[in-house]
């Protein structure tokens, strides 16, 4: 397609292309929801369902000069159509500007933020330092922190009480008692972070920084208003990337890094074994189904950590050998690592 010479002509074409893209996504969501409903009905009736899943519309790349108003036009069209949309930006200022533009166009958008120090703000996590410690050790934060956090348990208890779900409320009360928070839960402030996550999932239009992208953020979910709406289906958002994000990252590994990881493996294995023993003891002592499920999840997590540590013990010497060979390679030609080393490095270091 030939470039347009006047800004006004470019804006007109850009608007038409954007309307067409959002319309195609809306139609695909409509077809997808119908396909999901028919598949669910077939499962309930125990009959076969072989209809093909609706195909995702192709991606769209728009190259336009600075100052054309791309983001503003997207905000206007999104506010009018309310298409489930995730708008990714390079900076937080651009994120906030997009949210403001949607508001000026008569719509409403949610600005998504990660955990941070900010008491009273939607993204405030009262145990952020514990979360950073877990992240530094490359552990999964949600099972190890949020599931046993008294602030998160208070928020969930209040939420299920508000929507009138007696079954979920009883489950949370059981977890609170088993965690030993029964007496102090009333004095505990509810977690803003979990509420922020829920509000973001149900907001049709979300703006976020590139680094905040996740598969959960890319899904839209109907707001939960009653106990009958606790498991609404997820529908994919239209993902709009404002400007081109960095698509590559250079990872540097030295022999010093390998020595440090090797020194950390022993204590990590001991911690995992201790957690495994504790969880197995709790499982044997558990009297309620929820307590058993929590103990089983802890055992699964400890087993995963043990397997990861043992795999690292096997692969770190091979990784060190590959680095040494690469450093002494003739004519500065790189040497590809063995497949096992390459996959481990990709999973653990990138």
How would you describe what is shown here?
There is one protein chain. With 350 residues, this protein is an alpha/beta fold. The chain folds into 3 domains: 7-58 and 68-112 and 195-241, no CATH class; 128-190, no CATH class; 255-349. It is 56% helix and 6% strand. The protein is built from 11 helices and 6 strands. The chain has helices spanning 7-45, 70-81, 92-104, 128-136, 141-144, 150-163, 166-178, 192-202, 255-285, 289-327, 339-349, and strands at 85-89, 110-111, 205-209, 219-221, 234-236, 238-241. The strands form 2 sheets. Strands 2-3-1-6 form a 4-stranded parallel beta sheet, with helices on one face. A two-stranded antiparallel sheet has the order 4-5. Helix 1 crosses helix 2, helix 2 (70-81) packs across helix 3 (92-104) and helix 9 runs antiparallel to helix 10. The protein is globular.
Amino- and carboxy-terminal Cα gap: 38 Å
Helix and strand succession?
Answer: HHEHEHHHHHEEEEHHH
Indicate the multimeric state.
Answer: single chain
Structure summary, number of beta strands: 6
What order do the strands of the largest sheet run in, or round the barrel if closed? Answer: 2-3-1-6
- Count of discrete domains: 3
Q: Please report which band the strand proportion falls in: under 5%, 5-15%, 15-25%, 25-35%, 35-45% or over 45%.
A: 5-15%
Average pLDDT, all residues: 78
Provide the structure class: alpha/beta
Indicate the low-confidence ranges by residue numbers: 134-140
The value of Rg in angstroms is 25 Å
Please tally the helical runs, counting DSSP H or I stretches of 4 or more residues.
11
Shape: globular
| Fraction of residues in helix | 55-70%
Largest sheet: 4 strands, parallel
